[in-house]
Recover the amino acids of this structure.
């Protein structure tokens, strides 16, 4: 009966998640290795935490009576404890440091990379699983740790091939922002919501400009689509103070500091933040990192609420084309800041910390746009073709010799003929195909086909007879010189 017919399972990818190709994985692996090399030059050591943490350890998303709040993927284990997939790499680090505090050297300097998960609505360029690469210094109250991270970020960009002038490390300080809030009368718990609205408005300065931010600081703003965003409801004088601060950046870090210092003179917190920025500017400047690489930018906010001091972002300043072909800046690929309260949640005492996170996929996209990633040029293994199944052991011996010489190699293990084997080698991006039929075997020879030169010829080959007459991009050498000749061809 038709109703008894077994339904075929539909192959479908989960929404908000992506499969990764071999070329993307290899490009990511190479990029991560470069980042690691820079971090290790600075004395950071690798660390790793699990994908899963107790939900309350993540901090930002705490479990309620029924289930954790939105934003994380959560489940209960067999003893009814709530567990969640990590949504970043910083909260698990804070738990790890607190749990191993006495055994770790302080300051504790580590880097970690891995996937994180957000239970959020996916959209264009917004995924539920993505990779981050973090570096953190835990246990140092000095802003020298923040300065060092900013210098390391600049070095990382240049090591990856992003030239000076194509990126900027922008720094600000949440203490200065808090001081500005105090100066306009928005301190206290009762104004927490309005402060958040103000911070969100400042964060849109690059996109909306001064007048757009002014609208969001006052009554609100209607965008091009007609959607209305409610503003912070500030008085004109309050909004102007915020704008004076946000537009306070000048040509040099010293000039910027002189511009913003009077704006927070009435605030102890704000003044302390300005002096921290001055100290960072002095440290990076004396190490050779001028404002062409690391610059104070008063519009930098950073979204996470646990930042307590300096905050920083790496912005790529070169232009790319959007979906409509319009030029746009690539924007931020990394960011971080000081979070002195995160480890303290576990220990009940202040534990200063500063950290930095790179969005791996976004940075890889930037490198691709710059032409620094040539995934099409990734070389696959040398493919040893199989002309006679009875001689499979001979072909395996060839592949084994190549591997022992450090050359990636594989034997074709399908059941197709010569033309299909060459197409397979092309698909595998193989640089060289090794062919030995019965005639070559009797003569003690092998044929080596340079696939980069012979790709077009391979498409026209119809059978083995035609192959034997075609000698373009092909070398015939003694079997004993197989490894030596392949090395020459790869070189």
């Amino acid at each position: 009966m038709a109703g008894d017919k077994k339904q075929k399972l539909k192959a479908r990818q989960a929404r908000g998640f992506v499969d990764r190709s071999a070329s993307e994985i290899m490009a990511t692996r190479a990029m991560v290795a470069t980042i690691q090399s820079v971090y290790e030059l600075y004395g950071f050591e690798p660390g790793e935490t699990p994908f899963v943490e107790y939900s309350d350890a993540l901090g930002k998303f705490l479990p309620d009576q029924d289930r954790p709040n939105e934003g994380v993927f959560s489940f209960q284990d067999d003893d009814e404890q709530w567990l969640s997939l990590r949504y970043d790499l910083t909260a698990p680090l804070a738990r790890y440091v607190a749990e191993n505090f006495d055994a770790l050297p302080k300051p504790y300097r580590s880097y970690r990379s891995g996937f994180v998960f957000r239970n959020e609505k996916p959209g264009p360029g917004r995924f539920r699983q993505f990779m981050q690469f973090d570096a953190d210094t835990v246990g140092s109250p000095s802003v020298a740790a923040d300065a060092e991270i900013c210098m390391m970020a600049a070095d990382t960009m240049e090591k990856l091939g992003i030239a000076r002038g194509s990126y900027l490390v922008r720094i600000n300080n949440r203490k200065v922002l808090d001081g500005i809030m105090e100066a306009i009368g928005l301190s206290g718990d009762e104004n927490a919501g309005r402060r958040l609205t103000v911070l969100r408005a400042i964060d849109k300065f690059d996109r909306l400009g001064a007048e757009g931010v002014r609208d969001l600081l006052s009554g609100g703003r209607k965008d091009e689509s007609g959607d209305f965003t409610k503003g912070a409801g500030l008085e004109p004088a309050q909004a102007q103070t915020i704008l004076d601060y946000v537009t306070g950046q000048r040509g040099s870090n010293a000039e910027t500091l002189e511009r913003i210092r009077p704006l927070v003179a009435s605030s102890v917190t704000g003044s302390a933040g300005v002096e921290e920025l001055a100290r960072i500017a002095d440290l990076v400047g004396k190490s050779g990192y001028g404002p062409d690489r690391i610059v104070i930018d008063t519009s930098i906010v950073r979204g996470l609420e646990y930042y307590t001091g300096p905050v920083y972002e790496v912005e790529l300043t070169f232009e790319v084309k959007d979906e409509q072909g319009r030029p746009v800046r690539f924007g931020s690929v990394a960011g971080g800041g000081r979070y002195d309260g995160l480890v303290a949640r576990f220990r009940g005492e202040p534990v200063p910390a500063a950290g930095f996170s790179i969005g791996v996929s976004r940075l890889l996209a930037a490198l691709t746009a710059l032409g620094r990633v040539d995934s099409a040029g990734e070389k696959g293994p040398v493919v040893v073709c199989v002309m006679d199944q009875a001689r499979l052991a001979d072909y395996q011996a060839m592949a084994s010799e190549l591997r022992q010489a450090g050359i990636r190699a594989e034997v074709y293990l399908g059941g197709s003929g010569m033309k299909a084997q060459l197409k397979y080698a092309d698909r595998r991006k193989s640089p060289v195909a090794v062919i030995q039929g019965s005639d070559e075997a009797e003569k003690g020879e092998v044929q080596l086909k340079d696939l980069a030169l012979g790709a077009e010829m391979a498409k026209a080959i119809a059978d083995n007879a035609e192959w034997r007459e075609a000698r373009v991009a092909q070398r015939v050498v003694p079997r004993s010189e197989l490894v030596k000749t392949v090395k020459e061809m790869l070189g």
User: Anything to note?
Assistant: Residues 22-41 form the longest helix (20 residues). The radius of gyration is 29 Å.
